[in-house]
Structure formats: structure tokens, C-alpha cells
Specification:
The structure is a homodimer. By secondary structure, chain A is mostly helical. The first copy, chain A, has one domain: Orthogonal Bundle (Farnesyl Diphosphate Synthase), CATH 1.10.600. Chain A is about 70% helix and about 0% strand. A two-stranded antiparallel sheet of chain A has the order 1-2. In chain A, a hairpin with a 2-residue loop joins strand 1 and strand 2. In chain A, helix 5 packs antiparallel against helix 10. The relative contact order of chain A is 0.13. At the A-B interface, helix 3, helix 7, helix 8 and helix 9 of A face helix 3, helix 7, helix 8 and helix 9 of B. Chains A, B: Keywords: Isoprene biosynthesis, Magnesium, Metal-binding, Transferase.
Chain lengths: ~300, ~300
């Protein structure tokens, strides 16, 4: 079904993978150029920041920025800086998530997590500084001559990632451990914890490109749906994939007694929900025609990935 | 000497203290209004953020914003929002500093530190979300109609507080524990760790008020000098004050084997250096006449405080 669906939008799974890995390489080159290690004894901080953000990953959020920006004629350089920014924000959240006081994860993408490779204090500060730098990249005049676009991007990132977004969702998640949550509560948790930043990444291209309100609303709706689809698929993966496939510990949700889409809908039901969201996400992009083919294929990829 | 010096700039110590406490009350009212606790299970996050940022303190950074803003005719509402933002940024740094993996401090201003009152995970996330909200307040259109001012404030805050500013300084400080540092290295450490944010707080009023380049440079130089004076005085206090006076553990620098202004210059030498910086800071403000009297008195206060 994967190949048939992806080809239906004109992009083969192999072509999407190539596009994703090309984008990841360009985003990583941008991160590499921005994160220059200075000479003083603070060098270790920059090394930890580089370790956290240059340690691989799908670059899904950065890819969303690049693809939506391309719909609106944004310069590659500006889109790459915004992509690097959202990847820094995401990396900071992973570094802090992995800390002993949080998820206590020794591994991230099959490698020692940042506090294991360095130490806890350095990991806390590297996460802090990655968050700061994510905002710094957005408000720097080097990004765009129009300050209102820079300020709007930073505002959207703050709303997506702060107490009313990602961090709020993390706290809801912590509070829910060992408790039974209803489907609506699980939806809200994930809309905040992971959905808000994915939606922001999609919208960022529309903000950068001064998209008209209808186009921006469609991009936002697409971002919201693939954000949810991503999480539903994540729950399915946590329940069905191996540690080796995930590059991290599988089965953690069950062990933590968390309510998930799988615990509420079953593995098949969750899979069907992910497919429904994928089709809905693709439908939002119809007016963009073939220029949105990679974004449509990405929706399919998100629900069918094995890691 | 305190009274004589302070009166020389036209403000009695009592009048300055009243001005500081009036400003603190207005800043706290602004923080209280911005940090509304929502209804969901994320309420605990907002309670921790409020605990961290509303737990008292001199509000030195916020006061600097208000006073420099008043030199340039900035609206009280905008100045208060920027003051609240810098106090959030400062509070986030204290919450993370106090964590077991960092300074492991159980007390802050005589009260349980945030991770002791809540738990470590909540404290990490509350610190994270306070940082985000500090930037959110600056880029929100509610602050100022001119987006270039909003973006410039956020850029200045990012540079002062991130890897090239406060957080970089914290790492240099950690790396220097148990090592002997030269005076230049100690100066650089503190210019980053505490000086950059204090200087930013002073400059923020000038940015908000679109100060001309000469005025802005004077305000920045004042901010730099009182930032250094503040730290020199802090080292003297750490070596001479009691736990009760400080509201935190005294003598920590010595116990940690840190090079300080006191270990390098002696208590008397450090006191003289603080006085020299105070006079130099006041000199930068001469062109502003009596409208800068509170800022001049503040320079004296910073070096003569006992906590």
C-alpha cells in the first residue's frame, strides 16, 4: 500500500527518501556553519550543542519548513535558517527529555544521550543554549529584511514550544503517567507535546513567504494533521517495533502505564486513524497541485515509517 | 559614605529603596497578570513558573529597564513588559542553576528552591518555559507597534543570555572550579555570566526608546560597569556576609576553590574596584543630568548592598 499511495501523489518512496536526505544534508550544513566552536573553555558547551543537534535524525521539522517555504518562493538561505532553528528547538527538547530527572534515557538514535556523552550540567546548559539560539536565528536581521516576519516567526515558535505548547504537553504527559486518560485528553496532550511544533514547522514556510490567509490556513491544517498522524504512528511503533528499529527503547509507553492511541484504539484502530489523518492532510494541499507532491508523500511516509 | 555618595546624586538611600520597591511591585503585578494558571493538568507547570519568578528578589534587572526606558519617554506598559521578560529570563537561569546537577542549592532567597518545592523534572521544564516566555513577551505585537524594535530586543536578549553570553559564562565558571584563573579570565567569565544580562537590561530601555547612538552607547557602558561592579560586590559579599544576610549559603566560592575578585584582589582591593566602577558608571550618565539620578544612585546601591 505504501508504494501505491505514494505514487498516487506522483512521488515514489525512493524519491521522497532522496529528497529527505538531501534536505537533511543541507540543514546539517547550515547547523554546522552556525554552531562554530569558540576557543575559550566554553568550547565544551558548543561541542555538546553540536553533539545534540548534529547527531542525525529525520529532520522532519526542518524538511517541513523547506517544503512549505518552496510553495511561496522563499529564498533557500532563509528557509534553511528557519529549518536549522526548529531543529535546534527540537534538539533542546530531546536533550532535556533524556535527563535522569525526566525520561532517564541513556540512548538517543542509538548513541549515548547528551548527558551520558558529556555530563548532566553540560546537557542542561546545552539544551538551554540551543533554545536561545533557535530564537536568535529567527530574529537576526540576516534572516530576512522584514522585521515583522522575523518577529512573527519567533512569536509562533514561542507559542508552539513553551508552556502553552510543547512544554505544557510534556507536563500533561508526566502528570498522566499511571493514569487512564480518555481519547480527547490524549489528543490534547499530543497536540501540545509534539503537534504544535510540527504545525509550526509547516506554517513557518507560509509566514516566511507571506502566504495569503487561505493558503496559510491550509498549510496549518496540513501541519496539524500530520503532527497528529506522526504521534499516532509513534504510538503504534512503540508497541510494535524493536529497540534496534527505533534506535531507542521500545515499549516504554506500556511500561510507564501511559494511555496512548494504541491503548485506546488498539493497534489496528490506531493504524486506521493514522491513515485517515494522512488522507485528510493531503486533501488540505489540493489547491497547490503538483508543487505540494513532496508534502503529500511526506504525510504517507510519516504514518508508514518504521523508526 | 553610602548616604553621602547617594545624596551627592540627589537621591537619598531611602528614596532609592522606595523607588526600587515601587518598581518591584509593578513588575510583579505584570508577571502576575502574564502568568495565568490554566485549568488543565499543566497547571503545575505554571505554578512552578510563578513560584520561580514571583518569589521576590531585588528586581535589579527589571528596574534597569524601567529607569533607562524613562530616559527616552517609553510608555510604562511597554517598559514593564520588557522588565517582566528579563526577570523571567533571570528566574529561568536561577532555577536551572539550583538543580542538583548544577549548584545543588536547596534554598533561594531563604525559600526552598524550585526543584525542592516541586520536583526536578517540573523545575527543568518551568525553567525552559520561562525562557520561552521571556522571548514571547518581547516579540508579541502587544509590546510595541514597531516590529523592528521587538526583533531587536529579542536579538539582544538572545545574545546576552545564550551560549555567547550568560550560559557560556556559566560553563566557563564550571570549567574553572578548582583551577586558578587570572584576573582577565575572571573578568571575562563575569562579563558573560552576569554582566551581559545586566547590560542588556540597561540597553533594553534605550532600544525601546529608539535612543540615538551616543545615548545608547552611554547606557550600554553604564550597564557594563554596574554589571561588573555588581559581581565584584557579590564576591565581597560571599566572603564577608552571613547566610542569613544573603538568604543563601555564603562562602561558596571559597569552598568551591573558585578564583574570584576577592581571591585575586583581596577584600579591600575588591571593594576599591567596586567603588571605582561605580563612579565610572555614574560618569557615563552625566549628559542625562538629574533624570538619571536614580540610575546613578543605583550604581552606589549595587556596590554597597548587604544581600
Amino acid at each position: 500500500m505504501s508504494a501505491a499511495m505514494a505514487e498516487a501523489v506522483g512521488i515514489s518512496p525512493a524519491a521522497l527518501k532522496q529528497s529527505l536526505s538531501d534536505a537533511a544534508a543541507r540543514i546539517e550544513a547550515t547547523l554546522d556553519a552556525v554552531l562554530v566552536v569558540p576557543g575559550g573553555s566554553e568550547a565544551i558547551l558548543f561541542e555538546a550543542m553540536r553533539y545534540a543537534v548534529l547527531g542525525g535524525g529525520k529532520r522532519l521539522r526542518g524538511y517541513l519548513v523547506l517544503q512549505t517555504a518552496s510553495l511561496f518562493g522563499v529564498s533557500e538561505e532563509a528557509a534553511l535558517r528557519v529549518a536549522a532553528s526548529v531543529e535546534m528547538l527540537h534538539a533542546y527538547s530531546l536533550v532535556h527529555d533524556d535527563l535522569p530527572a525526566m525520561d532517564d534515557d541513556d540512548l538517543r538514535r542509538g548513541q549515548p544521550s547528551t548527558h551520558r556523552r558529556f555530563d548532566e550540567a553540560t546537557a542542561i546548559l546545552a539544551g538551554d543554549a540551543l533554545q536561545t539560539m533557535a530564537f536568535e536565528l529567527l530574529v537576526d536581521p540576516a534572516l530576512h529584511e522584514d522585521a515583522s516576519i522575523r518577529a512573527e516567526l519567533a512569536l509562533a515558535l514561542a507559542r508552539a514550544s513553551g508552556a502553552h505548547g510543547m512544554v505544557g504537553g510534556q507536563v500533561i504527559d508526566m502528570q498522566g503517567e499511571g493514569k487512564s486518560l480518555a481519547l480527547d485528553a490524549v489528543r490534547r496532550l499530543h497536540a501540545l507535546k509534539t503537534g504544535a511544533l510540527i504545525r509550526y514547522a509547516a506554517e513557518a514556510g507560509a509566514i516566511l513567504g507571506r502566504a495569503d490567509p487561505d493558503a496559510r490556513a491550509r498549510i496549518a491544517a496540513y501541519g496539524r494533521d500530520i503532527g497528529t498522524a506522526f504521534q499516532v504512528a509513534d504510538d503504534v511503533l512503540d508497541a510494535t517495533a524493536s529497540d534496534a528499529e527505533l534506535g531507542k527503547t521500545a515499549g516504554k509507553d506500556l511500561a510507564a502505564g501511559k494511555s496512548t492511541y494504541v491503548s485506546l484504539l488498539g493497534i489496528e484502530g490506531a493504524g486506521a486513524e493514522a491513515q485517515r489523518l494522512c488522507v485528510q492532510a493531503q486533501d488540505h494541499l489540493k489547491p497547490f497541485g503538483h508543487s505540494a507532491d513532496y508534502l503529500k508523500a511526506l504525510a504517507q511516509f510519516v504514518v508508514e515509517r518504521r523508526n
